[in-house]
């Protein structure tokens, strides 16, 4: 019997496991194996791997510095924003850390003390409540078995199975399909590009240089000709002077976009939800790492102090985070409403000039 079972060893789950180790008997399960080779489909989360200033701040708050081994060239200080329909382009100074997401997840896992029972390649199927504990059904190597735990934490990302079972009627955030292709390219473009084009999506598309590759990504409506729209994006990028060669990898994953704070679900009846499973992700930029860390840190602090009634305390202590999502939704209007975006970009507000040699 475990005190806490955490489903999902992404940034949220791995952080919570690390912070609870030694105080509780913790089980951490993850269906993927972030330890396998990058080519393997089960290797890592489909992600841009940009560590935004808020996420950098969270690592500092947790007393962590980033190892050099997770970094990828080039480091980026500029965002190139392209409004395709209105033919406006601007550059903005930003401070991202460009990382290899698979290595980042492995690093987070490597810091978890050995007292935590970690099971990789192990899938959570369902749970049943039993008196004051949970009977948790897991599948590993095609075998189904059961573990017991007093508290169940769903840190299983955008398609959270734990959330679906714990609170099936809770309003769910809009889900986009994030598609990314790794194409061969030289890194002569030292910026992260964001592309706005309603012909492709009402959210956004991006390019991120990664070593000798360029990631081309888009958050697309999952049921509207995903492949056609992605090809359209690539053609439009060529028109903007992007040069790229062979595609070496293509991956996809859901991205949630909580447009109302009511869509965030922190859990109930002995179940807590963390990171994107709860809906913690920026609706304006799809930045999720800082929210994964913040929610894990808040829950860890509560469980370390007052485990009784933790669901209520966790809901209350995440008030600031909900407020933050509310404000990001206001900011979203200035980014995604074409008329407001045009005004912001035309004025050149906070933009900078970039001299190309
Ligand atoms: C295409 C794309 C690009 C993105 N780019 C960025 C970026 O550059 N910067 C940024 O900050 N954010 C980015 N995000 C968002 C960010 O990746 C997520 O918000 C963040 O990873 C959430 O962390 P998490 O720990 O909550 O969930 P996840 O990282 O999704 O981890 C969930 C874990 O749970 C496991 N799991 C799922 N189901 C089960 C199950 N049934 N049983 C066991 N294990 C399970 C998964 O294998 C996974 O390891 C991007 C998202 C996408 C889709």
What does this structure look like?
By secondary structure, this protein is α/β, with parallel strands linked by helices. The chain has a single domain (2-36, 45-345), classed as FAD/NAD(P)-binding domain (3-Layer(bba) Sandwich). It contains 10 helices and 17 strands. The protein has an 8-stranded mixed beta sheet with strand order 15-11-14-13-12-4-5-17, with helices on both faces. Strands 1, 2, 7, 8, 9, 10 and 16 form a 7-stranded mixed beta sheet that branches. α1 packs parallel to α7 (289-305) and α2 (53-61) runs parallel beside α7 (289-305). The model has no long low-confidence stretch (mean pLDDT 94).
Which ligands does the model contain, each kind named once?
flavin-adenine dinucleotide
CATH first level: Alpha Beta
Tally of separate helices: 10
Tell me the name of the CATH homologous superfamily: FAD/NAD(P)-binding domain
